[in-house]
Amino acid sequence: MGTNQKKASQVKGIKSAGLVILACFIIAELVYNFVFGNPANFVGNDPANRPINGNFYGTIYKGGVIVPIIQTLLLTVITLSIERYFAIRQAYGKGSLVKFVKNIKVALANNDMAKAQEICDKQRGSVANVVNATLAKYREMEANVELPKDQKLIAIQQALDEATELELPTLQQNLPVIGTITTLGTLFGLLGTVVGMIRSFAALAAGGSGDSLQLSQGISEALINTAFGILTGAFAVISYNYYSTKIDRLTYSLDEVGFSIVQTYAASHK
Asked: What does the pLDDT average to over 207-211?
């Protein structure tokens, strides 16, 4: 192997999603108890009573203990989505990725490796990182007079694959967590709905006007958790699909440039 082909990925991001989830849970609990559960949101300044008419915070509080769990999931999706935005933006580099690929292909067509290197140094990002590693192997194979051409092509392709494998995990980091929350958000919303409906039916079974508060609380719990669960699941699906598409586009660019480098070597060397 060459001396410096393996270069650490330039893409940085949050490596511990568990700490993010824990921090979001603490924030969700504080918001649930001290903002939504503020006594001023309820009749008689007592959270045990019904919310003041039109008070949305109090209504959310009546959603029950499932609310802070779903809030944790929602805050986690928002935090990791913002983190992925900056990480993938960094991976794309400083300029247009489409223009970068085009310029690299032109430089390769002219067999101008110095120009290709200059373009990479200016662009930076994951694609430039991979191209840099592949060009380093390209130059190494040009200087090698022992290996046959087919083995040199294999070595260049291997350098491309290794550099790509080094970059991809950093791009996909935390996306599995967001993908999991697409299901968890909906499931916890459904759980809260079921718990709320159980309370409602229990109040109906008890009968009497004295249970109207419990009935309304059960319905509120069901509806609030349904709303939060759908919101969390929808946001997670949008985020996951958006960033997966961005990564696919970047991977396609890697494949396109890598193929051009290998083909350039094959065409210009006997």
From this structure: 56
Instruction: Give the relative orientation of helices 212-268 and 175-206 as an angle to the nearest 10 degrees.
Output: 160
- CA pair distance 198, 189, nearest whole angstrom: 14
The pLDDT confidence band at residue 36, using thresholds 50, 70 and 90, is very high
Looking up tokens 């990925």 gives: 9
CA distances from 172 to 101, 153, 175 (A): 22, 29, 6
First to last CA, the chain: 22
The CB-based long-range contact list for 85-89 (8 Å cut-off, 24+ gap) reads 85/243, 86/13, 87/11, 87/12, 87/13, 87/170, 87/171, 87/173, 88/11, 88/171, 88/243, 88/246, 88/247, 88/250
For residue 177, what are its two tokens? 């967590």
pLDDT digit string (tens) for 187-197?
999 998 888 88
Burial class (CB in 10 A: 0-12, 13-18, 19+), 153: middle
Q: What is the model's pTM?
A: 0.84
